[in-house]
Amino acid sequence: MSKKLLHTPEGVRDIYGKEYERKLFVEGKIHEKLHLYGYEDIQTPAFEFFDVFSREVGTTPSKELYKFFDKENNTMVLRPDFTPSIARCAAKYFCEDKLPLRFCYLGNTFNNTSNLQGKLKETTQMGAELINEPSVEADAEMISLVVETLLNVGLKRFQVSIGQVEYFKGLCQEAGLDEETELDLRDCISGKNYFAAQELLLERKVEEPYQSRLLKVADMFGNMCSLAQAKELGNNPRSLAAIERLEKLYEVLKAYGVEDYISFDLGMLSKYNYYTGVIFKAYTYGVGDAIVKGGRYDHLLKHFGKEAPAVGFCVVIDSIMEALLRQKVEIPLKESAKTLYYNEANYQEKLTQAQKLRGENIAAVLVRE
User: Fold this and answer.
1) I want to staple 357 with a disulfide (CB 3.0 to 4.6 A). Which of 196, 255, 363, 364 is the partner?
2) Secondary element (H or E) of residue 263
3) What is the C-alpha separation between 1 and 315, in angstroms, rounded?
4) Is the whole-model pTM more than 0.85?
5) For residue 208, is it within any domain?
6) 351 and 271 in a common domain
7) CA distance 127 to 243
């Protein structure tokens, strides 16, 4: 047998033993909190038709998808992101429902990216989606749920950073940017590549003061003072409405008692173009990327035939595990199974002992001497 067959491909890994036990514990603690908020479990397929994740939907770029063909020659895709799958499912089975729908999920996602930088191509995600609810209270419910979920798994030192896509779109509209320039600028700013953003605006001949305003977005982060600064900069109805929404959101988050974990970042822009309003990410020590990502996507379900506002988030379980390890957070593990050695003469006796222990909810294994 080739030794190559014993190894996993780049970007995926095996998980077993105590590490897997810790992972199951973390998933259980997150699940526990999602259920307390009234979210019901939903499961979607690991692969879907290509169009569910197409460019028009605004999800993962085609070059980063794992694509294959079924026997009817349809292009299929391993899901890179849960939200479009949940949106498709909700549009199919709950098309006529007007009351709020609360779903939660657990599963793996697959991203065929060559720029790994320590990231996995297959990651486990858990998340929640709240559909048919456009209110600022729904946004606050999601963000407070993120805070309570992270506290429930044992993290103490983290921050949830909140942005607003509509603020950026308002500035782009005011500057007269076409759709292509807006998307290119969005990529630069979301990638924190400010020099590229400046070059792009010069190349597309964006005039002052709009050029400076768009570049200043990247520096607008911090507490409520950053929102006051943003209000002065964004002198258009769309951007001002976005800031007012964030101010209302902060008041509701204070009612939840989670304001100490909240900051604002108007330079935060997601690679997912289906986000329409508030977006947020949670960061903690010991992990380079966000451990939670989410936001509002009020037009996504329309692609699947249902007009419905929605907001949601996903927790990247693998990143949570890394953070807990780096921060030396202890995860309680079950006691190892009791080992009972037997031979032909005492097998019945040892089997009886093992069954008695199992009846008392104590793990037991029988091993032949």
Assistant:
1) 364
2) strand 262-265
3) 39
4) yes
5) yes
6) no
7) 26
